[in-house]
Amino acid sequence: MPPSFLLQNGITLAIALSVVGLVFAFILIKKVVGADAGNEKMAAIASAIQQGAKAYLNRQVMAVSLIAVVVFAAVWWLRGGLTAAGFVVGAVCSLAAGYIGMMIAVRANVRTAQAASVSSHSALKVAFNGGAVTGLLVVALGLLSVGVFFLIVRGSVDHAKHAIDSLVGLALGSSLISVFARLGGGIYTKAADVGADLVGKNEQNLNEDDPRNPATIADNVGDNVGDCAGMAADVFETYAVSLIGGVLVGHLTVGTEAAVVYPFVLCGLAIIASLIGIGWVNFIKQEATASLVCGVAVSGIVASGLFWWATQSIFPAGLKIGELAVSNVNLFYCAAVGLVMTLLVVWITNYYTSTHHKPVRLIAKASETGPATNIIAGISIGNQATLLPVLAIAAAIWGCYDLAGLYGIAIAVVSMLSLSGIVISLDAFGPITDNAGGIAVMAGLPESVRKITDELDAVGNTMKAVTKGYAIASAGLAAMVLFGSYVEDLQDFVGHKVAFDLMDHRVVIGMFIGGLLPFLFTSFCMSAVGNAAGAVVREVRRQITAKPGILTGSDIPDYAQCVDIVTKAALGQMIVPALLPLIFVIAVSFLGMEALGGVLIGTIVTGLFVGISMTSAGGAWDNAKKFIEEGNHGGKGSFAHQAAVTGDTVGDPYKDTAGPAVNPMIKVVNILAILIIPIAFKAVVK
Amino acid sequence: MPPSFLLQNGITLAIALSVVGLVFAFILIKKVVGADAGNEKMAAIASAIQQGAKAYLNRQVMAVSLIAVVVFAAVWWLRGGLTAAGFVVGAVCSLAAGYIGMMIAVRANVRTAQAASVSSHSALKVAFNGGAVTGLLVVALGLLSVGVFFLIVRGSVDHAKHAIDSLVGLALGSSLISVFARLGGGIYTKAADVGADLVGKNEQNLNEDDPRNPATIADNVGDNVGDCAGMAADVFETYAVSLIGGVLVGHLTVGTEAAVVYPFVLCGLAIIASLIGIGWVNFIKQEATASLVCGVAVSGIVASGLFWWATQSIFPAGLKIGELAVSNVNLFYCAAVGLVMTLLVVWITNYYTSTHHKPVRLIAKASETGPATNIIAGISIGNQATLLPVLAIAAAIWGCYDLAGLYGIAIAVVSMLSLSGIVISLDAFGPITDNAGGIAVMAGLPESVRKITDELDAVGNTMKAVTKGYAIASAGLAAMVLFGSYVEDLQDFVGHKVAFDLMDHRVVIGMFIGGLLPFLFTSFCMSAVGNAAGAVVREVRRQITAKPGILTGSDIPDYAQCVDIVTKAALGQMIVPALLPLIFVIAVSFLGMEALGGVLIGTIVTGLFVGISMTSAGGAWDNAKKFIEEGNHGGKGSFAHQAAVTGDTVGDPYKDTAGPAVNPMIKVVNILAILIIPIAFKAVVK
Predict the structure, then answer these.
(1) Percent helix / strand / coil, chain B, rounded to 5
(2) Is B2 helix (H, G, I), strand (E, B) or coil?
């Protein structure tokens, strides 16, 4: 193949590979749906979860649509029809990835429970393939939408810059959906979980997933709408924004066709690598954790080989960025940094949240002296967990910038996110096994089944923590790229260079206000979960008082009523925090473009720490409880266990609501800032 | 008096007024020590607390001296003898303010208990005057040392710049002592408190201050070494650094004698205002809170009048800053902003931490569903509490910069800190009444005495939260000033302009690493308290097991052993976090001056939020418990109360160890950065 083949057909190839990804997603869907769905009782429970999840997502779509229409109109007015069209494409694809993925997850759960009665590896395969559907959908839809949209708009207007500009609309659409999905889903899942536990475990001494608890179906629905649909929208957004950022920076700082094509090709090739990783997990029989970790490692190795080939083909003589000559080897190193970052984040998150390492065991030990010392230890570990990721991000930015400037950083981010397909498969695996365990208990399946789903659930717990670290760390790495896009676009618009010097008081004020955003945002998230959980507690208490037979098993609880209450509460509580970034960006734009620039960096700086510390602490608390339940420090029912349950409950909104929602919030702030440039800073144009 | 009088004699006048402050401090000391010290039993308890506090502080001085000698040698080598001399003056004065203040506090406590058997107002007066000693010492020693040192060094070298430079040594000396005092004292007080509570309240069902608890004396010692000595060193440092910052910026950006004299004069006049406020509390009989708040308000009103006069006298025709002409009215507005900020911080902190407002009541309500929801609510409130202070800081920076540039901000900071004398009096009042209550219980004084000390203690709780907010908010306001000093000094050294643009990846990397510091630092602080408290728990359990008669009252516990263990643990645990800023600054200096500049701003941005959210959440948790103890949500002993006790314990290291230590840590980073310029960036000089 001549060296110019990839250059000329790169985007088409990427689109073709995204279609391959979609085809495999549908093959996996057929495979999952075709598996044995168990007996009637299991089907009834699964159906209740499906109904609840679908009902919630439909109502969320309705609620978000109202806001989306307003934003759509504003985008059209500010940036024209093409950008507005991009907004719609981004929003619809983000929704679709989450929606379809979740509808498969709620079918995979019952089939995993059934497969667990055959063997552990069968259960692993069903759950993993259910998750892989979401993973493949996210990357395939992401690459397809950005690629096709890019080709169409590039053909329809004169200037390539406009085409790329309108991709920003696509980014906004996906980010907006993502922040709502993360928030709404996050509030839903944790309100149901905390609410069910507070009455069920603490007041009535019921076990997890006891069918006598009226909130138990809502709890299982929550796993799907939060950990599955919300997560998928979040990573879709991260993937799309990274790819668009790479294209944007390639166009603005390098300016050649090759630099624009390259990010598309990396994403396309990574789909092949992800498919091979998925194949590994399906066909090579190993212990669960080993199988999943090897799947990711195989994908990484394949990807690095393909990336080497692509870099050589697209840039046979290297590239020039301004005055700087960059060899293709150096550019490959940038892509490799992205892959290494993925592995590093997996390793670091695993260290801080797995039961095998010191941090979780310290928290478990601290539980011996009660809930207060458990919480103190958890917060301390969470803050400490920011150290290594931030140093890794700093080193990656330094290295990539030295190798290939801002474009080098953008490529590292694209490369890091290109493996989302396989990484998400691990994550979505978690809620499926969690649900499978719930169904096993509720349907009264034998103890052996529950044992297998419990083991898989513990693996899923750590894997779930990984994706959150991955998303927020990629945002940190992308900080320069996102800010760079704002500055380049701004300078383009106002027609002169704009400096953002730290000696400029407006920049520092902007950073303070931007730094405030993650703190205020997470404050709202935490209290939203508290409020919604309170509603669940009151409803469960009401049902138990009205029908005392529920507790003895002679009355059936009204599950649907709980589902309905959480749905309403989650949708009501998500609006204010979701609008915060919008309000902040518009308000600060009146203080000028320097202050707005400060806001972008300020939000990333504090957001990175808030996000990482919250997701890590939450994961560590959860597994400290699991570690005690394994028989350490007195085991289940001991004083230490009670303390650890408190820590886990505090960790719930940390790791599943507030922490992960910080990532899409950062993106919304950055993209909004770019979008309002033409209206906010008209007066500055010279 | 001719308008030039103040200009020519301003520094001398300021020094004279600082001597007046010292004289009044000694009058108050005589007054406090001369009060009735109660019966023999009370004297014995008070003496045990005194011995413990003195022993701890002596050992802390020894430990810090070792490090100080190394730093002293390094400063001498880097910056010469004068700066090293400044370092010694700063360190000694910072220590002295804390030491003397604490020695009075441990005498005022027993006298407050005795006065409480006379009347509430007598007790208030003794406690307040004991606190006022520390307040006056801090401002008088601060102003005296900076003023005298400035006059001496200015006479001894040719260039005024060198004189001001060596003041940086003084700032470093006070900051270094302050970070150790805040950390060591903070770890001590909370380890003793948490340790005593964990065994005493949770395991043995003993009340607070029960003499059968072997850790009870250590707990009372902790109030003095942490809340009194540690706080005094902290505010001394903040005061001295603000004054030096004002002088530095006056010299560098305005360059006239008037601009250098003005900050000294403001500080001197504020001592008069503080003395009048102290007189108000002593001579006007009011309800406790009203009396204290009026005292501050009176000081503020008097200060604003004096500041108006001083501004008119020193700048009869305004001043010129570069091209900018600033009227004296505008400069006065900057000073007024500082006074208003003080009142705002008092008001905001009071809103978030007093039992009369919504935030504390929300936490109390959340306690009904257990410790987890109490913690979630507290963290949410803590994060939310950053909103108003940060907006106020942003507005103040914006306004002062518009009025008079960087000098305007510096003046606002000086003015804000100039009222430290009266603000500290309120703060040091807290531990004295807390101790008085302890002594009343241990000495078996009648219930009515305990009732009075309890009421005063509740007032003291909110007042204590105020000073912490005040110190950290002033650091936020001073951010531009501190950073500006680094940049000016750096440019002076390298001989050309240095830009710190957010598009420079080194600046962003620096900000990430700087932003990491407060998270890592507080992580160490939290685990230090956990570790030291664990040592206390083991010792108390050991004593109770060895001598079961302790619980029945037939055996006397070995208080001294507990005091000794906390002392060793606190000193051992403070070293690593105290050295963190040193390590970070030196390590990042290898990445260049742009990265180091980023570190300074990054540390302030995240530090401001971490500091405010931790101190606010801690104060709110404490008072939520108090609110329940007043009989709400089930009152003392209820399920909600138990939950609130957990929240309070988590809040202990938040508000008294980690949160307040962030402020001196930020300062150490900033001052160290200035000091290492000549060695770190030698290669860059053109």
Answers:
(1) 85, 0, 10
(2) coil
Collapsing DSSP states into helix, strand and coil, what is residue B195?
A: helix
Q: How far is Cα B205 from Cα A360, in angstroms, rounded to an integer?
A: 30
What CA–CA distance (Å, rounded) separates A281 from A279?
Answer: 6
Listing DSSP states for B244-297 in one string gives HHHHHHIIIII-SHHHHHHHHHHHHHHHHHHHHHHHHHHHS---HHHHHHHHHH
Quote the DSSP letter at residue A319.
E
A356 touches chain B (CB under 8 A): no
Q: Cβ of A505 and B534 within 8 Å?
A: no
Contact across the interface for A513 and B194, Cβ inside 8 Å: no
pLDDT digits (tens, 9 = 90+) for B455-513: 888 788 778 878 888 888 988 888 888 898 889 889 888 889 999 999 999 999 999 99
Q: What is the pLDDT of residue B503?
A: 92
CA proximity to B299, closest of B96, B147, B132, B104: B132
CB A631 within 8 A of CB B537: no
pTM of the model: 0.94
Nearest-5° Cα angle at B434, B429 to B438 = 145
Question: From the DSSP assignment, how many helices (H) and strands (E) are in chain A?
Answer: 23, 2
* Partner B contacted by A507 (CB < 8 A): yes
Do A503 and B483 lie within an 8 Å CB cutoff? yes
CB atoms near residue B205 (< 10 Å) = 9
B375 vs A513: CB contact, 8 Å cut-off? Answer: no
Q: Which of A379, A299, A297, A302 is nearest to A344 (CA)?
A: A297
Model confidence pLDDT, tens digit, residues B543-592: 999 998 888 888 889 988 999 899 999 999 999 999 999 999 999 999 99
Largest CA-CA distance found in chain B, in angstroms, rounded: 79
Helix (H, G, I), strand (E, B) or coil at A69: helix
Query: Hey, is A6 helix, strand or coil?
Result: helix
Q: What share of residues in chain A are helix, strand, coil (percent, to 5)?
A: 85, 0, 10
Helix (H) or strand (E) holding A222: helix A216-222
> Among B394, B601, B649, whose Cβ lies nearest the Cβ of A513?
B394
Per-residue CA distances from A502 to A510, B177, B600 (Å): 10, 29, 10
